[in-house]
Amino acid sequence: MISGNVWALLGAAVAALAGIGSAMGVGIAGQAAAGVLAEDPKKFGKTLILQALPGTQGIYGLLMAFLVFIRIGLLGGNMIDLTLSQGLYIFASGLPIGLVGIWSGIAQGKAAAAGIMLLGKRPDQMAKGIIYAAMVETYAIFALLISILMLFNLGI
Amino acid sequence: MSIVKMKKVAVIGLDTAKEKLISDLMELGMVEITDQAQKLTESEEWRGLGERDGDSDKLTVMDYDINRVAVALETLEKFSTAKKPLFETRKAMKQSEFAKTMAGRSEIEKNIEYVLELNDKHHGLKELINKKQSELISLTPWKDYDLPLEETGTKNTILDLGVVPSTVDIPALKEMAEDGDNAVVLKEVNRDRDFIYLAAMTTRDCEEDMMTVLKQYGYTPLPLKDFIGTPAENMQKLRKEIEETEKDCSQLEEEINKADSLKFGIQCVYDQMCMERDAERVKSKLLKTKRTFNLEGWVPAKSMDAVSKLLTENECYFDFRDPEEGEDVPVMTQNGSFVYPFEVITEMYSLPDYRGVDPTKFFAIFYAMFFGIMLSDAGYGIVIAVTCFILLRKFDLEGATYKMIKMFLYCGVSTVFWGAMFGGWFGDFFQVAAKTIFNKEINIEPLWFNPIDDPTRLLIWSLVFGVVHLFLGMGIKAGMLIKDGKMFDAVCDIFSWYMVIIGGAMYLAGGSISQALVKPGMYITILGALILLFTGGRKNKGFGKVTGGLSSLYNVTSYISDILSYSRLLALGLATGVIAQVVNTMGSLMGGGIVGTIVLMIVFVIGHTFNLAINALGAFVHSSRLQYIEFFGKFYEDGGEEFRPFGKDTKYVRITKDSDGGKK
Description:
The structure holds 2 protein chains of 2 kinds. By secondary structure, chain A is mainly alpha-helical. Chain A has a single domain, classed as Four Helix Bundle (Hemerythrin (Met), subunit A) (Up-down Bundle), CATH 1.20.120.610. Chain A is built from 6 helices and no strands. Chain A starts with a helix and ends with a helix. The mean pLDDT of chain A is 90. By secondary structure, chain B is α+β, with helices and mostly antiparallel strands. Among the domains of chain B are: 74 residues, Alpha-Beta Plaits (2-Layer Sandwich); 195 residues, no CATH class; 109 residues, no CATH class. Helix content of chain B is 58%, strand content 10%. Chain B is built from 22 helices and 12 strands. In chain B, a hairpin with a 3-residue loop joins strand 9 and strand 10. In chain B, helix 5 runs antiparallel to helix 8, helix 12 packs antiparallel against helix 22 and helix 16 packs antiparallel against helix 17. The longest helix of chain B is centred in the last third of the chain and has 43 residues. The two termini of chain B are 21 Å apart. The chains are: A mainly alpha, B alpha+beta.
């Protein structure tokens, strides 16, 4: 029988999977950035900002995983014993940011790549490229919010 | 008053006063001269009256000269070993000082020629190096060939060097070339992936036969005829020559670097030339007859007196008028000292329409507040504020960069405030450090509450802040409607939503404060919804009157999503706080003692730098987004063109009047 603690750790693991989305998103944006840089190496700093944008999903996933660790006392070394249903609750709380993080990270990476292309042609319009990419992030933020609220209102 | 009122000025003057007037206007820098060429073709009245002024040939020459100076400056820039400052700022210079520098213009122009000459020489040397290098590369495969390259045979034999593709089978080729009784020697000197390098020898009689066969197999003779001596000798010679040329090259670079002291003078001349060019270029926007000229432009209403005085001095006839309906008026915004750095956020979106509202003064305080809540760490706030303060002190910044840094200074201060409210000072660094190093428990109490302990509370507050922000945006829209005399529209489209949202909040959440709020909340919501239902379709026709009401009521989804969007205040704030805690926890894993303390410090610097960078970026982006999408969406009319007065548009020096002591 899988214990509650295992499920809780699985929840943390699923949340951390949001990093997949960020890794792919940052990668996509990085390819576009390198292309733009070939034309004008002075844009390095600006492309870097846009490339960093899809990185936040991974951070949210990490954040959620750590919050689970803190809640169940993993970091202190003495993990509390969870019942099976408590464990499943925590597992469920990891799902939103884990799943949304993956796809929103990839989508944001594409938007950021387009923003980098925009930067290449019209450097003055860079702020708008950033905003377009940030629009995608909204949904990752919402998912994180749901994850956090689920975890904090479990009463563990 | 935040969008400055503009007046259009029309001027007619004598040709003799034109140059003086243009230079005076440039000095004043308050008139945006508009192009009038259209008038000649479009307006019956103006057709044939005059012609377009300006001399495009002269402009081309001026641009060419400016380009040459720019190349000289680039050259100096490229080889200068002086450390570059973080921000390129214009040096402030008094008019009289600048004039003094300009007095030595012919001297400076000689310097420009000197730098350009050095640059040409440098290019020449670089080319020479390239040429020699490619010769070196072409010789490399032959390095084991030990005959002089100029050798082409003896009295009875010939010797030829060349390549065949690497797929050719040499013994078979040799047999073919020998054709039974010809004496042929094919020596393989070298081979690489693509070619086999051959030395082919035969008697003079058989030369033709051999060549025919070889060429059938793709033999190409190599043009190494210019070399004298063996390849090895030549290569050594070339290497030495390249080395020497490179030495010359770096000597030349050193010389250019030494010429760096000439840079400032050249920059002054560059700016002077640009100003002369601009003065010439602006003429193309004027109209002229044989003895007069006509100029039109926009002037901020407050500068009318200064402009009139100047025009009177130059004996011009002029007239001011208000902008006409439908005319594109340039936009200049003017805000108080706290608000105006935030203009950079408005400018990033798009300037307001001349007849619209400048939103900067409304959102400035919210921008700083949201930034603070999202970064929510007093330690980070101090870092940002102090950095910006030092930058402002140290650099003579102008324009958008100045505004941006100043804005971040305010945002940093706001972050300190909210960080203190939430009890975040580099996360829980001081608590962790005290515990790990000194084994003491200290507690830094938040002034308000810690969101990690009670996220739901901050979530509710985030939404409340959001509703206030949105209501302000809607209020501005209502104000605009009322100003236009559309009181009824304001009630139907704005105040009804106030009722729905306030009533809804009372109905849903008021119960936790007082049960008495619930019932009235419900009635207020229903009343608001009824107004929407019955008036939403008032501008439609027929059946649209019914569906219009329903669809305007359906907008409730967009209001809900707008309000929920502010939950990012909580999410991003928590992200900063938790990651900061994680960093501190990781740093404390090595325990106390000297090693533990050093590890803690290293982790502190790296971890918090990263967290600050990524979250400051997030706070900046999402605070902007809340303005652009949620707030601007409620009322903002953009699309104005920036007011660009004709003035001294210099790149390197900021010329100030002698009287005003270098102020901006």
